[in-house]
């Protein structure tokens, strides 16, 4: 089993420096990329069936093909690596950033070649201090070797890469909120169309791509699309960083072929801690619907998870056990979402804060039977299309599925006027 | 036109708009908050949701935001679909989550868009039962009150303030359900257009602080359509009165003039009307004191003066109506009527009028200025002299970037998209002034003395003419480069505009502006020229073609007259004090009609209490040459009367000719039009007094007006008969035809279910378009379009090029600096405005100050030079003033504030010497 993304990450927690990266074949793809026409790079990525790893799973090559190309295209064009990773339960990009920053940089260079972008930003979560420092070092190393900068390796390609450390808001990870934040504006999202590919950063064509997505690109260019597809067990190409958090024996992160099942991943995590049983799991981070026991063998890829009513999301699951109060867990999540609402559209800012209050009251034993209907109402109120961006519909996912799978727990809180899990 | 289907009903609508605008334009009720006709769509509040269906077979549909969805041929939507209805009620429930529900004590109550929309959606019961979020309020200065707990997070205020008005001290802070709309700290809002927040905010967060001091609900106001008196632009306003005082001013939409917005001087300057100092009775000077007379006594006295006068002259006023000026002209005879301004202003305005009349560049309306895609401003600090025009020009600079968006298929109303594409791009705006202006941040600037600026203008005109033959070569010299750049920008624009005025008293500048406009108009018939006029009726008075004050003084000096009647004028403000003395102190008898005491009323023998704009009807001619009628909001307590009525009564009392028979405003207008045919169109400015709707007059009071039978019960328990209004089709009553009167007669915007100012939608023929039946006002100036090339009158330039010798060291040219709050006579009486009036000062460029060894705040002596160097002020005045460093002031110039209430500046430009006060 090949593990292109993580195989070279040092086990001691240090970063793979330039020398080691080059030794492992690093920047070969970049050299190859310099010999390819932009269209060829995009075409290769398209054929590889690489889909975005930031949560939405949009086919990457197709996204690139929307960018206006050629001499008449607006300039400059921008590439942005989304390293905000604020989604609760998601910590996959951090490993790639800290362990193998050159892999990301090489991926960004190749993407920039494909898009004829001359400026790139890495928009990184403020708390990722170590990652930011290592990226800075890696960028300096790469620039010193002219993998970045002007006339890269004697070609006519140029690329400047800047790090922007986020002031820290979940909304800054949403791609248009991110662009506004980069421009120094409030991190409110933008409405689409126009899409960033056409009118993004400072009104210029821009591609925003997740760290993991970009980290795959050097391997695709080096080994070809067929190889990449062969890594996967499903139609979507490549491997995936799957993660587990919650009360398992060994929470962590594993690179596996796309389409691995939750059962396999839980086994790698050593199963539940002794004495605990799994009650459900959020397959792809905090803003995905709960799945339960019966879904353990579903292939975790973009289409299969959707079929059973959830989303692959970021591929990092949060496990709920039978000794943890599902109401308390959902309350915790909704408090986060309510707090992170950017405050732009009414259903989100009013609905999520209301939901969080309702859950809090239920959890504290002060709930009323009407609250459950109100919670259901709110999940409909913030449905996709009703809100301005995907934050609120995402926030509704764990709530609506908890109301479906754990309804009796909610009712128990109401009838006992207390949380049954608390002493 | 496109066909849209709303709830299975087909309609024809204009295609370049959102579904929301289209539905509102059709008169359908669809609630909204974040959208505003002047700000466009951003899709934040989600209040305007409707169901959209793919086709006839689609029964499920999906919710879309009407404000974000463009009209498209055949589009099918439902406003009434239960899911849409439920969702919209839910949005109100969400908005109301933390709302304090304090309508009874909220100044917005009764004209609140949130109230209206809540009722419209049917939401009644809020299920949220937890603690509400609360905020601390801020002191934002004398104009705007702040009560943040009422906020519904619609973002309109910051979008208006930052993006439309271009000021950045108001912002949205924090996030989630706690977004705070305010300043980073307490303090006076910096924008001169902050008062519009009062109307932009759909709830009671931003309210009129001046109204608060004498609060009255909208439904209790007696209202009338009026015209702002605080500069020459003639913004349309609605005046609200109760108990004989004006309570507030709000914007009166006129699609050609002010649109949705006023400046703060216009909105908050009204309180001069309520001042205790008001002249409320006729006054007679006797033994050094002024003793009150009754109206009869006063008329008798006036009759005696008229009968015994050996020669009588009348002095009109640029702040009095056409009718009042004409009545005086009638009383004294055309040959004895003088314009109440000095020769200099008289000549300048006359020249301006000639330029506008001659064309071929047309004088644009404010609405047209908003569409001008390149502009050159010569000499005028617009924010401070013609404020609303500055706001219009600001929108003009968005035209070229918007064109970029249009090319990408983005419509103008798609505000967020337009801004994304346009970013900070601005179309060309070149401002040539002596000092920095509030538009500088979006402009290219050129600084210099008035002569430098005029030369700059001439050079631009020449460059435009040259460029029409050969392309401009780029020049290394900064100045020449700027000239070429300006010429190129104007010549390549679709609708170029040049703006000038009389602030700097430079004829050359007007000539230069005319030349630029002429050069542009030769190849582009869309070229426009706009001249800022200082007062509400500056242009109207000029069109009467009466001679200046100097001639009045001459008449008196010659002994051909010994009696002077001054109409609504303080001559000491509009002329040199010597000249004013020449007229007033030499005459034997001085009669003054005015409403506030001044240096002029102080020397009068007889003072007659005149009605202000709120207490009179009349017509002003704005800077565009648009005659606009203002109607009386209330009848002042006797014996205060409209000036023209005093004069008519005087004519009746002394049985003087035609004027004696005048019964109402129409009679005055009729006489004026036959005597001065140039005013022919003035009668079309509004329907005459005989106009009726469904046989009835139009009520000035809303049908919910309360207390009619009780409000005067402390004086008399019998309900008094409401006063008649012989002058207009409006009635001082709550009874009568309530529906959609013609634009000039709309006493207030109201429609069933639409109590707020947003009811304006219901009066427009399409959203943000003209009022039904056309925008009010009648243009008096339409230059012939260019058929045969004509040369403009060409004086000035040559003399300028042969400028005199440089002044000796220590002598500088003093130029007037204008202040939106302070430089205008009437608004300075309003306490709220007064708070922002600067103290008198002298301004110098920091380097010049340093060279003279002067520092900020230091007391400096300014002596007006009496002889050479050139410039011939005869004042010989001296002032001691605190020094203000003005980094934007052109070096070599001295700035002195113009028109402040406590400071009579010398006639400027003037040569002055500056020294340290001992
Ligand atoms: C509220 C919200 C937060 C998001 N946060 C992140 C994030 O931290 N990192 C990320 O890569 N994508 C995030 N996304 C997804 C981005 O909007 C975008 O889809 C993604 O960066 C595109 O990259 P990809 O196609 O490579 O996945 C977020 C989306 C939403 C709605
Ligand atoms: S759903 Fe609305 S309020 Fe929530 S984050 Fe998105 S735009 Fe902001
Ligand atoms: S203060 Fe008023 S205008 Fe501003 S967001 Fe709140 S409700 Fe809207
Ligand atoms: S711009 Fe002039 S006319 Fe308009 S509101 Fe202000 S002072 Fe009045
Ligand atoms: S008015 Fe349409 S979303 Fe606010």
The general outline of chain B is globular
Sheet/helix structural class of chain A: alpha/beta
CATH topology of the largest domain in chain A: Rossmann fold
C-alpha Rg of chain B (nearest Å): 28 Å
Mean pLDDT over the full residue set of chain B: 93
Q: Indicate the mean pLDDT of chain A.
A: 96
- As residue ranges, the low-confidence spans of chain B are 868-874
The structural domain count of chain A equals 3
Largest sheet of chain A: 4 strands, parallel
Shape of chain A: globular
The ordered H/E elements of chain A are HHHHEHHEHEHEHHEEHEHEHHHHH
* Strands of chain A, count: 8
Strand element count of chain B: 35
Cα(first) to Cα(last) distance of chain B is 75 Å
The proportion of residues forming helix of chain B, as a percent range, comes to 25-40%
The appropriate CATH architecture of the domain at 346-539 in chain B is 3-Layer(aba) Sandwich
The low-confidence runs of chain A, each spanning 5 or more residues with pLDDT under 50, are none
Structural class of chain B: alpha/beta
Proportion of helical residues of chain A: 40-55%
Based on CA atoms alone, the radius of gyration of chain A comes out at 22 Å
Which oligomeric form is depicted? heterodimer
Written overview of the protein:
Chain A has helices at 18-23, 28-35, 38-47, 60-65, 92-99, 101-115, 129-144, 175-182, 211-223, 225-230, 262-268, 302-307, 326-340, 346-363, 370-381, 391-405, 407-416, and strands spanning 78-83, 119-124, 160-165, 206-210, 239-246, 252-257, 278-282, 316-321. With 423 residues, chain A is of the alpha/beta class. Chain A has 3 domains: 18-230, NADH-ubiquinone oxidoreductase 51kDa subunit (Rossmann fold, 3-Layer(aba) Sandwich), CATH 3.40.50.11540; 239-321, Ubiquitin-like (UB roll) (Roll); 326-416, NADH-ubiquinone oxidoreductase 51kDa subunit, iron-sulphur binding domain (de novo design (two linked rop proteins)), CATH 1.20.1440. In chain A, the strands form 2 sheets. A 4-stranded parallel beta sheet of chain A has the order 3-2-1-4, with helices on both faces. The longest helix of chain A has 18 residues, at 346-363. Chain B has 918 residues and is α/β, with parallel strands linked by helices. Among the domains of chain B are: 2-95, Ubiquitin-like (UB roll); 346-539, 3-Layer(aba) Sandwich (Dimethylsulfoxide Reductase, domain 2), CATH 3.40.228; 804-916, Beta Barrel (Barwin-like endoglucanases), CATH 2.40.40. Helices cover 27% and strands 17% of the residues of chain B. Chain B contains 28 helices and 35 strands. In chain B, a hairpin with a 2-residue loop joins strand 13 (283-286) and strand 14 (289-292). The N and C termini of chain B lie far apart (75 Å). Residues 171, 189, 341-345, 348-349, 387-389, 391-392 of chain A line the site of one iron/sulfur cluster (SF4).
């Amino acid at each position: 089993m090949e593990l292109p993304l993580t195989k070279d990450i040092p086990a001691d927690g240090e970063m793979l420096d330039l020398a080691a990266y080059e030794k492992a074949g690093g920047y070969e793809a970049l050299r190859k990329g310099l010999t390819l026409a932009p269209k060829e790079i995009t075409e290769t990525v398209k054929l590889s069936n690489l889909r975005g790893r930031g949560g939405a799973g949009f086919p990457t090559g197709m996204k690139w093909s929307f960018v206006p190309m050629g001499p008449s295209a607006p300039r400059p064009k921008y590439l942005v690596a989304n390293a905000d990773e604020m989604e609760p339960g998601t910590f996959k990009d951090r490993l790639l950033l800290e362990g193998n920053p050159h892999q990301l940089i090489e991926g960004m260079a190749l993407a920039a070649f494909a898009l004829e972008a001359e400026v790139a930003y890495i928009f990184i979560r403020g708390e990722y201090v170590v990652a930011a420092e290592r990226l800075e070092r890696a960028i300096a190393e790469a620039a010193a070797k002219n993998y970045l900068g002007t006339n890269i390796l004697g070609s006519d390609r140029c690329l400047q890469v800047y790090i922007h450390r986020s002031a820290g808001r979940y909304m800054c990870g949403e791609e248009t909120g991110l662009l506004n934040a980069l421009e120094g504006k409030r991190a409110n999202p933008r409405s689409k169309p126009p899409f960033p590919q056409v009118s993004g950063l400072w009104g210029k064509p821009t591609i925003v791509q997740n760290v993991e997505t970009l980290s795959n690109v050097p391997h695709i260019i080096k080994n070809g699309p067929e190889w990449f597809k062969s890594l996967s067990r499903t139609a979507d190409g490549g491997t995936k960083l799957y993660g587990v958090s919650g009360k398992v024996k060994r929470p962590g992160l594993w690179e596996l072929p796309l389409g691995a099942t939750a059962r396999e991943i839980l086994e790698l995590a050593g199963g539940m801690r002794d004495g605990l049983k799994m009650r459900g799991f959020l397959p792809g981070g905090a803003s995905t619907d709960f799945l339960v026991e019966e879904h353990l063998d579903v292939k975790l890829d973009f289409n299969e998870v959707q079929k059973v009513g959830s989303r692959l999301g970021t591929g990092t699951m949060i496990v709920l056990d039978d000794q943890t109060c599902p109401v308390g867990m959902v309350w915790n999540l909704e408090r986060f979402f309510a707090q992170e609402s950017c405050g732009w559209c009414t259903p989100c800012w009013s609905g999520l804060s209301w939901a969080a209050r309702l859950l809090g009251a239920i959890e504290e034993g002060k709930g009323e039977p009407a609250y459950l209907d109100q919670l259901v109402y709110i999940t409909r109120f913030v449905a996709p299309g009703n809100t301005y961006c995907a934050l609120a519909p995402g926030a509704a996912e764990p709530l609506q599925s908890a109301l479906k799978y754990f309804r009796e727990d909610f009712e128990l809180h109401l009838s006992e006027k207390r949380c049954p899990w608390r002493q | 036109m496109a066909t849209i289907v709303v709830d299975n009903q087909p309609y024809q609508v204009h295609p370049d708009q959102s579904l929301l605008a289209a539905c509102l334009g059709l008169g359908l009720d669809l609630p909204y908050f974040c959208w505003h006709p002047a700000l466009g769509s951003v899709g934040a509040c989600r209040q305007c949701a409707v169901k959209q269906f793919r086709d006839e077979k689609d029964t499920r549909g999906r919710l879309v935001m009407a404000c974000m969805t463009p009209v498209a041929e055949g589009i099918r939507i439902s406003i009434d679909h239960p899911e849409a209805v439920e969702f919209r009620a839910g949005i109100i429930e969400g908005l109301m989550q933390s709302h304090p529900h304090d309508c009874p004590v909220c100044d917005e109550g009764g004209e609140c868009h949130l109230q209206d929309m809540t009722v419209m959606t049917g939401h009644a019961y809020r299920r949220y039962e937890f603690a509400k979020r609360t905020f601390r309020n801020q002191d934002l200065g004398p104009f705007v009150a702040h009560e943040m707990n009422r906020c519904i997070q619609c973002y309109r205020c910051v979008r208006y303030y930052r993006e439309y008005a271009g000021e950045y001290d108001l912002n949205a802070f924090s996030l989630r359900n706690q977004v705070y709309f305010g300043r980073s700290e307490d303090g006076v809002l910096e924008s001169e257009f902050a008062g519009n927040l009062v109307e932009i905010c759909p709830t009671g967060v931003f309210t009129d602080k001046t109204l608060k001091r004498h609060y009255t609900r909208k439904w209790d106001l007696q209202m009338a359509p009026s015209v702002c008196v605080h500069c020459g632009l003639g913004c349309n306003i609605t005046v609200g009165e109760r108990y004989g005082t004006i309570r507030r001013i709000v914007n009166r939409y006129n699609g050609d003039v002010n649109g949705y917005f006023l400046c703060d001087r216009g909105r908050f300057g009204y309180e001069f009307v309520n001042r205790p100092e008001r002249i409320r009775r006729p006054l007679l000077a006797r033994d050094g004191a002024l003793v009150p007379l009754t109206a009869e006594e006063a008329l008798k006295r006036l009759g005696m003066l008229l009968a015994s006068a050996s020669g009588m002259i009348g002095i009109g006023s640029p702040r009095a109506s056409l009718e009042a000026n004409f009545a005086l002209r009638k009383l004294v005879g055309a040959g004895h009527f003088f314009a109440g301004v000095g020769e200099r202003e008289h000549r300048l305005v006359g020249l301006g009028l000639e330029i506008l009349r001659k064309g071929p560049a047309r004088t644009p309306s404010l609405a047209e200025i908003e569409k001008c895609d390149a502009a050159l401003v010569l000499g005028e600090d617009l924010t401070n002299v013609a404020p609303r025009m500055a706001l219009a020009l600001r929108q003009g600079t968005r035209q070229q970037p918007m064109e970029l968006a249009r090319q990408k298929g983005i419509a103008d109303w798609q505000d967020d998209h337009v801004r994304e594409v346009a970013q900070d791009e601005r179309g060309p705006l070149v401002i040539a002034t002596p000092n920095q202006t509030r538009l500088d941040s979006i402009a290219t600037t050129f600084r210099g003395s008035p002569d430098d600026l005029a030369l700059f203008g001439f050079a631009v005109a020449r460059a435009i003419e040259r460029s029409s033959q050969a392309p401009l070569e780029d020049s290394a010299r900064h100045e020449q480069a700027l000239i070429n750049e300006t010429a190129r920008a104007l010549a390549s624009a679709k609708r170029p505009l040049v703006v000038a005025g009389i602030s700097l008293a430079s004829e050359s500048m007007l000539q230069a502006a005319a030349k630029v406009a002429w050069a542009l108009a030769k190849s582009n018939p869309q070229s426009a020229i706009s001249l800022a006029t200082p007062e509400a009726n500056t242009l109207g008075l000029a069109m009467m073609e009466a001679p200046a004050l100097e001639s009045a003084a001459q008449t008196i000096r010659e002994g051909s007259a010994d009696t002077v009647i001054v109409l609504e004028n303080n001559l000491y403000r509009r002329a040199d004090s010597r000249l004013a003395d020449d007229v007033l102190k030499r005459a034997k008898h001085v009669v003054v009609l005015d409403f506030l005491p001044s240096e002029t009323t102080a020397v009068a023998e007889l003072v007659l209490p005149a009605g202000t704009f709120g207490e009179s009807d009349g017509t002003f001619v704005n800077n565009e040459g648009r005659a606009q009628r203002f109607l009386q909001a209330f009848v002042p307590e006797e014996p205060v009367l409209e000036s023209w009525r005093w004069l008519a009564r005087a004519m009746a009392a002394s049985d003087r000719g035609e004027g004696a028979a005048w019964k109402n405003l129409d009679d005055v207008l009729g006489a004026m039009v036959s005597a001065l045919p140039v005013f022919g169109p003035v009668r079309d400015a509004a329907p005459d007094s005989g106009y009726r709707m469904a046989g009835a007059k139009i009520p000035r009071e809303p049908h919910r007006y309360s207390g009619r039978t009780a409000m005067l019960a402390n004086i008399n328990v019998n309900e008094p008969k409401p006063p008649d209004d012989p002058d207009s089709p409006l009635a001082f009553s709550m009874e009568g035809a309530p529906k959609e009167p013609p634009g000039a007669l709309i006493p207030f915007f109201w429609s069933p279910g639409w109590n707020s100012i947003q009811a304006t939608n219901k009066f427009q023929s399409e959203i943000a378009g003209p009022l039904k039946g056309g925008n009010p006002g009648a243009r008096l100036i339409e230059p012939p379009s260019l058929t045969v090339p004509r040369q403009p009158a060409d004086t000035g330039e040559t003399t300028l090029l042969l400028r005199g010798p440089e002044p000796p060291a220590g002598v500088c040219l003093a130029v007037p600096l204008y202040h939106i709050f302070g430089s205008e006579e009437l608004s300075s009486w309003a306490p709220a405005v007064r708070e922002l009036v600067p103290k008198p000062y002298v301004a110098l460029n920091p380097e010049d100050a340093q060279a003279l060894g002067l520092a900020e705040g230091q007391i400096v002596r300014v002596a007006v030079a009496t002889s050479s160097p050139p410039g011939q002020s005869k004042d010989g005045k001296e002032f001691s003033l605190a020094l203000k460093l003005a980094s934007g002031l052109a070096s070599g110039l001295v700035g002195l504030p113009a028109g402040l209430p406590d400071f009579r500046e010398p006639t400027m430009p003037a040569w002055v010497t500056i020294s340290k006060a001992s």
